[in-house]
Amino acid sequence: MGFRFELEEKCRHTWARVGVLHTPHGAVPTPVFCPVGTQATVKTLTPRDLEEVGASLLVANTYHLHLRPGADIVAELGGLHSFMRWGGPILTDSGGFQVFSMGHLRDIDDDGVTFRSHIDGSEHRLTPEKSIAVQGQLGADIIVALDVCPPYPSDHDHNVEALERTHRWARRCLRAQTRADQMMLGVVQGGTFADLRAESAQYLVSLDFPGYAIGGLSVGEPKTLMHDMLDVTIPLLPEEKPRHLLGVGSPEDLFEGVARGIDIFDCALPTRVARNGTFFTRDGRLNIRNARHRDDPAPVMEECSCYCCRNFSRAYLRHLVIGKEILGLHLATLHNLHFMLSLMSEIRDAVKEGRFPDLKAEFLGGYRVADYGAGNRDRRAWMSRLGVSEVAPDD
Amino acid sequence: MGFRFELEEKCRHTWARVGVLHTPHGAVPTPVFCPVGTQATVKTLTPRDLEEVGASLLVANTYHLHLRPGADIVAELGGLHSFMRWGGPILTDSGGFQVFSMGHLRDIDDDGVTFRSHIDGSEHRLTPEKSIAVQGQLGADIIVALDVCPPYPSDHDHNVEALERTHRWARRCLRAQTRADQMMLGVVQGGTFADLRAESAQYLVSLDFPGYAIGGLSVGEPKTLMHDMLDVTIPLLPEEKPRHLLGVGSPEDLFEGVARGIDIFDCALPTRVARNGTFFTRDGRLNIRNARHRDDPAPVMEECSCYCCRNFSRAYLRHLVIGKEILGLHLATLHNLHFMLSLMSEIRDAVKEGRFPDLKAEFLGGYRVADYGAGNRDRRAWMSRLGVSEVAPDD
């Protein structure tokens, strides 16, 4: 039905790989970073802005769209692609993550979850069948099976119970699928327990999903623990199927995830911090509110080719953000997504050209430098190797 | 110094005229509607959006920019054009309107006004010399003399006193001007008193400003009174100089103002109501929050060529606005400015082709139709004559 995952190149030193995921709405070069369009809009951006920054696959949230405007409305208007005017591929999540994170507002049983809307307090029911039905109405290219997301930290017993439900629900999701033009990802869970992660990966592989997502990470655990879980999980997943690390995607996460064999990332972080006046740079995060940008005529990044950096000074961007001007939030979002998508493009090129470990070391070596002595000289050295000019370090 | 006002065509039945105002940053076809960029940004829009909707002359607010980021910062960054990256002409107001509307937060004397910042309560002083100096630092093409704006209603005596100050300040502003590359407009005041309006026009004409603004209207008085004041004032102003009606510019105001000989309009209304979910149409204002747009696949205006109407359904726009999504505010702003600027372009064409009275009658006849019986048939008739398709009437 238009889906094919083509592996093009593998890194010889890490699990990194480059490929193309073909969908009914076009091809996605992987590894890919997906901007998050929670309510069927990537906040502050038009579809043409998203094209300009190089987005290919977008994520939209089933929970939010189910409550407002309602999946029936979206279906009536021709599905998400038509509704939000995004001609490229779209992925919807299961709605589970939002519902499980609602704490006392939800009640889980073997069959599903009952929860109250954050908008009007109305009661709703989410089951595996309902999630797949709603995602069917929304009409994304890639959909995600409903899983149980235990909070972090949770003990082993709690995770065993959650995992058994997740696996039963995975089977029900597969049975519930009616649309052949949607690719469903099974979700590996297991918390921070290596044995459960391995069990989950093996069980879901036995169900033969066309692709896999890894859930329940980056929920408060140390980064090293997240990396350990990826190290356990990914070798058990079939090489020929795409792997999505759910809800993860800071600039540094891209490198660590790609190195472990992740193909798809989605994360609201780059757009969320943008709306707080934080711009990504090769040195780390730049807080444009800082007084030292008050009269700085330089762009956020001299070497960046985005509309924001090509046109506007730090002084103007600071003025916009301090003055609570929407244009400031728009330009920061545009820049941060351009940064993420360009970085991923660089990563793909590096994997193809056998330079991924070097690029990773260079990027992570220069990122968030706090010591302006020896560290700064190192930073300058790799910047020089990269052929980029000096930019101010993180605030 | 690059300024020239060229009259191209006059209407034979009204005071309407078409011309071109040449400025150091380009030519402005008149009559013109100026989007308002209070804080050196037309809210939610990039400069390229403004180009796309056909903006030529922008207005920025001296009061706001003086307080934040400060005219010295703007000057240091090369002036407003460079700061906000608008290559076209810019007009700044005097700052007086905002200061006078602050009520108990300001104190007027013969020399100037002392006021407190709405941002941090700090005390500031605005005099004619200071206004011109700040506008000099901001570096707009067209600047405005500092006037006294009495509240409406105010009695004759109060208006006489305000007018005398306005006239003394007008002389001081002319004397204070140092930059030859800025065109200064003198401001006709006089409240709602025909004798004072006439006196003001005659006095300011004697000072030989290169152009005139008409202030203190659309501040709460009935529209007919505003029209009366224009009817008194405009015949006393020199035909060969441009006339700016300050702070006025609903769609219907454009027709009434142009018919009376106004060349320049500026108004925050189209962008302000956009951020409340109100879209302009040929029928009047459409409130996108209305439940009947819930599943409407039609654009706001079938016949509109703006990015918003070419791409998005009323259902999606309603979803964005109800969901408090910035994209909704952006698209509404884009549409409303496109509407205003296209309407002005239509008006210019109509004046050139001797059809202005017909266009005015047609537009005002169809706008805000509330009776869906006979009125609706009339509306359909003129829509058919205009060759436009049916759109829903005002909410």
Q: How many DSSP E strands of chain A?
A: 16
Oligomer: homodimer
Main sheet of chain A, how many strands, which sense, barrel? Answer: 6 strands, parallel
Overall 3D shape of chain A: globular
Q: What is the CATH homologous superfamily assignment of the largest domain in chain A?
A: Queuine tRNA-ribosyltransferase-like
Which pair of chains has the greatest number of interface residues, and how are they split between the two chains?
A-B, 38 and 38 residues
- Global mean pLDDT of chain A: 92
The total count of helices of chain A amounts to 16
| Structural category of chain A | alpha/beta
Number of domains of chain A: 2
CA(first)-CA(last) distance of chain A: 49 Å
Short description:
Two copies of one chain form a homodimer. By secondary structure, chain A is α/β, with parallel strands linked by helices.
Layout of SSEs?
The structure is a homodimer of 395-residue chains.
Chain A lengths: L3 E7 L6 E7 L2 E5 L1 E3 L12 H7 L4 E3 L1 H6 L3 H6 L3 H5 L5 E3 L3 H5 L5 E3 L4 E4 L6 E4 L1 H11 L3 E3 L11 H21 L6 E6 L5 H13 L4 E4 L8 H11 L9 E3 L5 H9 L4 E3 L2 H6 L3 E4 L2 E4 L19 H5 L2 H9 L3 H27 L3 H11 L7 H13 L9
Parallel strand pairs in A: 4-14, 5-6, 10-11, 11-12, 12-13, 13-14
Antiparallel strand pairs in A: 1-2, 2-3, 7-8, 8-9, 15-16
Helix pairs in contact in A: 1-14, 6-7, 7-8, 8-9, 10-14, 10-15, 13-14, 14-15, 15-16
